[in-house]
Amino acid sequence: MTTIALAQSDDDIARCFPVMRQLRPHLVETEFVATVKKQQAGGYVLVFLEKDAAVVALAGFRLIDNLVGGRVLYVDDLVTSDAQRSSGLGTTMFDWLAARAREEGCTYLELDCGVQRFDAHRFYLKNRMAITAHHLAFRL
Hints:
Elements: E1 2-6, H1 10-23, H2 29-41, E2 45-51, E3 54-66, E4 70-80, H3 89-103, E5 108-111, H4 118-126
Helix pairs in contact: 1-2
């Protein structure tokens, strides 16, 4: 059985670290809970998919309002554990995010994806997303 829940307690946030680390290998386990809580204070929401009492997929998102898209659910993080990849759990999480965006009155669900992540590109295109922009960055 799978369930999706918000990670609000320190324990739930900490349980998400091993899966999040697969997407964000630079993260430090001893700093993870504090980092997530700091982001939560700014509107970040961490949600996890649990299967057989283990976190196997997760997403981090925030609601934003901008002139381009109006109200947007912006996905910062979306990952399924390596062991569970291609099992449909990523689609389950994606569908949950889309439903949440609709509940929140969003006109778009948006995310950025690394140019090297070809498998992720295929997943997003399969799930009805369109490539609409290039994300540019200037390191300070």
